[in-house]
């Protein structure tokens, strides 16, 4: 038998940058060639660990040196050994070692777990078809091989319950029809069983290997080798991380039976349905597969690579403040060194008792080192590790929040990133997907219309009904327009939202029930249902073969809920899809699949049944570019060949695609699409074309040839054949599918908008459907003016529309409203939700103000640049009351985001409270998030805003990764979004509590923790600076070395940690009842320069009070005698400088801890017990140390001596009172301010409620939007 030259093919594949060639190692004859060719591919070793045993310590320390604080304190530790300070290096080295050791232990523990898991995976045994030399003979048999030793091209036998060891091509299944059942929970989180298929050309030849496994030796005795060409190879694309795609082909040659000396070349296209991915679990008894991607090339490994690590905006601000503190420390060091050596040249600094030695450059450098060692305590060494600990617990709070649990789904909150907890309280922009995020993604087929008819059909529980006459428009609550209903008004409290949400019934009805029941399908209706039944990727799971034959109780599964709804609706109307059917006739040799359809003849629901068989020649899958799906089918009864297509109306109504229908039909279908979309239904347009048998075969062959290519060549070939297949189609009809809102969405969205968060909806749906759903969800209120940027075809027209909209908004006080009835709004129009049906509102400028307007615009821009902060804050505060919405489609968005229009487009977006972007691709979703994050900084100024994105599907992953906070929803489209997100929740409504409660608490805790760290460090350094002024700035320490270390490690940090874990500045009820409180701390308000300076001044005040009270009360202030203490055996004992320093330290430590109790608003038992425990523990440590230390130590018995000093005890309440007096006054003012804010919010809420009560009395209000 002839074969292909594998070595030449290998060389060709190496030249290609987009393909790889894997040779099947199934034959004894070709085993050496297969080994040599496949050796270039990586070993099948799973590696998820970050380190090895020999580089762990070096790499981990190197990574920790990227932290500003760690690097800084490492440098300080080094200069300790070059200075002459009496402070022990352990005061910095020991805390640094502790902080870094905690991180090293954590990283080591995590990586050890990854190593053990990798070893378990790599050592798992699998049965591999191996060839062993036995003298002059070669034996082939199944042998147990560890997963790490599997190479590309090896044949593997997987049994039920096992996971595929690598990415494999399925060759043969224990099921004779070639079906392979797998679960992909480890890949995408889906628990449902999916069906994969072996190749018809390899099922029978390799099926014999299953017999060899069941009865060893039968293969050798009966056949001697696999009955398949000895030379076969797989040409496929280079490894990619996309779980949903695979490009490749199986090539081999067979002998020509005609005897002309040439071999028959075979090329079988491969798809993802023929691939068993590593991590997927087999649910079929056995399958033979061949390894094509191993080790790091598998899709699972490529997806496991860590993406860019997100850091919170507050951390960036914290690092900036930290750098400022370091700069201040260096400046103070230089100043004090200059003063020190300047003072030594003064008369006061040249006493007989002062011996300086010769002044050299090194001496000056050592002095600088000594000063830097004292000033380094300005930087809190323990802050990073303490804040990471608190962030971890804040994530646990969200995970264990019972309100995030959904009983129906059985899911609760999942946190994948613990380092951005405080970012939840700073969100300014929320980008949300629509389908499956705002809605349930549980599609229900509601109605359809045929292309040549003017009426529609509604599908009810009891049958199919015809809707005669002009459809009657229905509102969101299922009542006809004109009947009184509630009105959207900005909510200031959750009680108002509850009231409004009760009116927004989830079981909304957007269509009317027909009165004439359909008892017989027309020919056009039968064609519609045939397209719906055959053009899809739904799988059938019948409970038994008898039920499958009968067509009852069919169990369908599909990746797309829309397709599932269509197939189920077809079954209700008598067209039951029975699934694929194995066959041995000629169609199998042609590579076609068989599909069975059962139709109820005559009346829907009647007893007449017949089986229709169709051969599916090929499928053009749906993609985000074409936005349609097509299948090539041929009837087994009469041999007629068809092209069936369905897709978005923009894709099907394209003149090239549907040129088979006249303009009249096009107009009718367009009207039907708009009618369904205006009712909030998702629409699909169906088309068909009958082709000749010869053209059909040509199309099938060209399609399969294109599907067997890879890379750009494949893309171009598919574009060419799809243009040929999807052309000259005739329109068949339109379907309308309902996707209901999730419960609580309206309340959640209105709360977020009131909180100052600008909500953007990014969806691929058509404009009318997306707008209607946005209205139902409460994003677009009845009194909101909608600005439209849709259906533009060039940059100039988009620029003109954006400019007009901006001018209209700026001239709002000088506008005249002219109302006129009309048709739906044209591109770029301004519309409003009015009170009189469909009314267009045009805005006319008063011409006498044109000149003044230009000057006002210039003045406004000047003031905007001079006061960017106020504008940013005002924009966020207006979001809750703004009545402007913006609608833009994907085509216009491409022009609006160009370099010349980006700035003005963002200005327009920021003037709106809600932006709706429809007809977007997944790439455009991520681009919009990036545009706002990066572009807003240029438009408004200051730092980039904090963005959050929420989605439920794989098409939302890029958007989630781009946003500062990515939030996944446990939806019906897999778990890709959940795995890529930072947070995941069962329902969209949980975002309200996540942002308003957890977000506010997290940000308040983390920001105040940082401020408390700055405060306590400044207080300590302030006391040290005062001491320097009394010692000639000679870098003499005020405290013992141990006290310097304990002050930052345990004496003050533990209480701050307890504050971060348990503090709640406002109650949960207040935060939910008054969403506007969220925006009061937005844009890092607690890190604003004036607020940080205020805390620094407070720390300076506290340090000054503690030092000078000790100075004047305990040591006399240079005027009076020092205080005395009782010492056994001594009649008169006075305080010296060592006791003075210890007293200052104790006053500082006690005051800093009491400072926490002053600002704490929530006292819990854990907080009180924790602080007491840490206080007692620190006292025991220091007390034992002062008794056990050397008698020559400056800290020897200091605590005991001070305890016997009356002046020390009398000065303590004085230092606490004076030191904390500003904090007490600030706390009183803060409490009053918060109460005023809540009181004002309650007043606004009562007025809003009264207004809604009044408006509900009007019978003319509705939710219509043009």
Automatic annotation (TrEMBL):
It is a multi-pass membrane protein. Pfam families: Cation_ATPase, PhoLip_ATPase_C, PhoLip_ATPase_N. Residues 978-1235 form the P-type ATPase C-terminal domain. The chain crosses the membrane at residues 71-99, 318-339, 377-399, 1008-1030, 1042-1062, 1090-1119, 1139-1158, 1165-1186, 1206-1226. Gene3D superfamilies: Calcium-transporting ATPase, cytoplasmic domain N (3.40.1110.10), Calcium-transporting ATPase, cytoplasmic transduction domain A (2.70.150.10), Calcium-transporting ATPase, transmembrane domain (1.20.1110.10), HAD superfamily/HAD-like (3.40.50.1000). Mg(2+) binds at residues 433, 435, 952, 956. One of its GO terms (biological process) is phospholipid translocation. It is an enzyme of class 7 (translocase). The keyword DNA-binding does not apply. Residues 29-91 form the P-type ATPase N-terminal domain. InterPro entries: ATPase_P-typ_cyto_dom_N (IPR023299), ATPase_P-typ_P_site (IPR018303), ATPase_P-typ_TM_dom_sf (IPR023298), ATPase_P-typ_transduc_dom_A_sf (IPR008250), HAD-like_sf (IPR036412), HAD_sf (IPR023214), P-type_ATPase_IV (IPR006539), P-type_ATPase_N (IPR032631). Its EC number is 7.6.2.1. This is Phospholipid-transporting ATPase. It comes from Schistocephalus solidus (Tapeworm).
